Amino acid sequence: MNETYSLEMRQIVKTFGPVVANDRVDFRCRPGEVHALLGENGAGKSTIMCMLSGVYRPTSGEIYIRGKQAKIRSPKDAAKLGVGMVFQNFRLVQTLTATENIVLGEKSSFWRGPGWLRRKEEEIEAIAKRFGLLFPVDRPIWQLSVGEQQRVEIVKTLYRGAEFIILDEPTSVLTPGEAEQLFETLAQMKAEGKTVILTTHKMKEVMAAADRISVMRKGRMIHTIAKADTNEKELAKLMVGKESAAVRRESRPRAKGPVLLEVRNLDVYGDHGRLALNDLSLTIRAGEIVGVAGVAGNGQKELAEVLNGLLPWKKGKIVFNGREFKTASVRGAIEAGISHVPENRMKSGLAGSLGVVDNLLFKSYRSGERSKYGFLRSASNREWSQSLVEQFDVRTPGLDTPVRQLSGGNQQKLLFAREIHRNPHLMVAVHPTQGLDVGATEAVHRLLENLRDEGRSVLLISEDLDEVMQLSDRILVLYNGSIVGERGREEADRETIGMYMAGIRDEKEEAV
């Protein structure tokens, strides 16, 4: 064990069934440093930190803290060793005050006595002031802004004595001003000898805050380097890899079809109440796959939802197949010919407790083929469902089997069967192969390519850069809710796309 390191993770392996999330990862931190852990979504950085904080247990490997081997089996074990983690999705009780959330669970709270809560509020206010993290300590969490809630989470780790503080994608929900304030807080933590680990995909915050940077890719640790010895372009190259793009299927030259979808100057606000799509414009032509690359949280979810009528827009216009959409309407999008394969198939795509027939009927039960006088045509619907199951090779014990009992690949094929059967003009597919094995992934790719070859259009939103580059005729890159780059199929390369994803613009394009 090198004495200069206050924390060391050696040869850490974490598997989830057949999936290897972390593959023999080595990670080391020094006292009094801000260490950035950089990588694309799915690189394994959050998983490795979840093992350090006790949320997961390593499949194999060793963790050393202050020179001694540590057995971290739970968040409680991690807290005793001085490890605290602030998750991207905050873990706060909305109806309790900020102070009550911070002291929740500590032994001293069993016997409070007169004036106990006020003394705690003063103690917490002092910590918050010292680190530049002020917030109303006596207000319930639901009354606080997202930025203030994050401050509560950070102060909670400091109040509990954390010396190793993990911040998971901390600026993803912050305004630029709040992000600047956070960087000042990190500097104060560093000055007090604390070790801060910052998991992120954003180059600018890495270069603004970090002393050293470790880059992960596809579950492996690629490189660790001092900030002074690198730059944004080199880090972007390390993050997405130097290897050539996935082998693209041979493509036949196609005549460009007419414009099917035109989005102009669209502003959309997300669930968090902040601008998610900012003056966004794009077009999609008939008979093409347009891929959208970008790190999660840059507006992909909102783009898919606004096109499918799930989310209203504040400004701009959407024209589809020659007709302008006036308001957000799910039924309007369905009737216009837009199909949707959502990111989470079991949360918003399928009803797990229902059988195959019911799930296939969700978007067509009103049609004359599927119902009459308000009653479903049960016999013909079963025959129709069976034909789709066979056509799309959905492996199921029976038509009445709850779809939650099917494998992920068969659930996805069932979802595609329902959406494609409607003969859509546009398919919006969000992470369509997430969690699928190689065979199921290949089947989904064929379905998307067949749609394009039939003259239909596909908007492919995926965090898998290989998938986007393999399938897309054009690639758009989303960053902070705007299209920051576009590349055609033949001119796209990983390095350029990776830089766009990190918010680094091409110098020539910036000059135009």
Automatic annotation (TrEMBL):
A Pfam family it matches: ABC_tran
Cell division: is it a keyword of this entry?
A: no
Which SUPFAM superfamilies does the record associate with it? P-loop containing nucleoside triphosphate hydrolases (SSF52540)
Q: Classify the source by domain of life.
A: Bacteria
GO CC entries: plasma membrane
**InterPro entries attached here?**
AAA+_ATPase, ABC_carbohydrate_import_ATPase, ABC_transporter-like_ATP-bd, ABC_transporter-like_CS, P-loop_NTPase
Task: Give the transmembrane region(s).
Answer: none
Give all residue intervals belonging to the ABC transporter domain. Answer: 7-243, 261-505
- What molecular function terms (GO) are annotated for this protein? ATP binding; ATP hydrolysis activity
Q: How does it sit in the membrane?
A: Peripheral membrane protein
Coarse class of the primary localization is: membrane
Q: Which CDD domains match?
A: ABC_Carb_Monos_I, ABC_Carb_Monos_II
Is ATP-binding found in the keyword set? yes
Q: What is the protein's name according to its record? A: ABC transporter ATP-binding protein
Please report the organism this UniProt entry assigns to the protein.
Answer: Cohnella xylanilytica
Q: State the organism's lineage.
A: Bacteria, Bacillati, Bacillota, Bacilli, Bacillales
